[in-house]
Amino acid sequence: MKIRELTQYLNSRFLPSYQESYDNSGFLVGDEDAELRGVLLTVDVTPAVVEEAINKGLNLIVSHHPMIFGGMKRVTPANATGRMVMQLIANGIAVYAAHTNLDNLDWGINGILAEKIGLTQCRILRPMAGVLRKMVTYVPSDHADSVRQALFAAGAGSIGDYDSCSYNSTGTGTFRAQPAAHPYCGAIGELHHEAETRIEVIYEQRIEQRLLHKLRQAHPYEEPAIDCIPLANTHANIGAGMVGQLPTPTDIHAFLALVKERLHLPMVRTSALDIRGAAPTISRVALCGGSGSFLIGDAKACGADLFLTADLKYHDFQSAEGDIVLADIGHFESEQFAKELFYRVISEKFSTFACQISEQDHGFIYYI
Hints:
Layout: H1 3-14, E1 26-29, E2 39-42, H2 47-56, E3 60-63, H3 80-90, E4 94-97, H4 100-103, H5 109-116, E5 120-129, E6 132-140, H6 144-153, E7 167-176, E8 191-204, H7 208-218, E9 226-230, E10 234-251, H8 252-263, E11 269-270, E12 281-291, H9 296-301, E13 306-310, H10 314-318, E14 325-328, H11 331-335, H12 338-349, E15 355-357
Helix pairs in contact: 6-7
């Protein structure tokens, strides 16, 4: 089995097209055509993790944080990243990363974090805009069913928990075939009137080329009319952060104790543990794995009692303003379950080769 077979599968699950513009997810180092000997799963690629992969004979590292984040102009031993890249190549080890694209999937980093602390009725805190489009086409009415099914099979027509969604209206189309045409109906040089169905479906922009190809295959016309229209709608299952409900209202001290236990935390930094002057019993919790201060306003706006994230600064805590409790659990700690998520996704598809969670991945912050 080639490394490429696994990385293409990971791309189909982790959807690199949904990474943020500043990110560098995907295949980063190595030869995708090499035979896969085993996978090491980690949050960060560090010298200790690289040595672990070498010692265990594993030739693909799957990480959450990209080891090459900004542009690299030189690969030399002058810095740690350059030394690791050289060592990886010398030992035939490849690296693949799934970072903000995994953050933006509802079942990704935030989904597994919500699962660990027992949240229910979860939804994306800030759904992503600009990723949905509408496709409109006009088809002879007796072909409408087959064209619709082709669009659905290609991935169009999903809205929330519903699939096979479309809007259809009937009317009359006109066209005149020119001498070089090969019309499905009508005669060369004659104005033709055809009973047509207008079909509208919503789709994710990332599948547009596949959708166009399948539509043209299914459509009887030589030159079908197709409109691809950008939408302002947000995508309910893609975006930043998450908010959910606790099964029962819970004392905040008890909840933070549960968070520390389930996430194996040495400490939690918080703003004042009161809302409007009283220690609250909390019901709604928002969260964002990694650096989530940009979502404090969203957490307040959705009525969350507590916002769980990492990398909060002094004045971020001040912005709680008695409206919400802010809790910083640490960056690595909030994303530690990326390794478990990688293991689940890979194991459900491939179970015949070594897939191991790193024993040397510990994060960079220590508590004393």
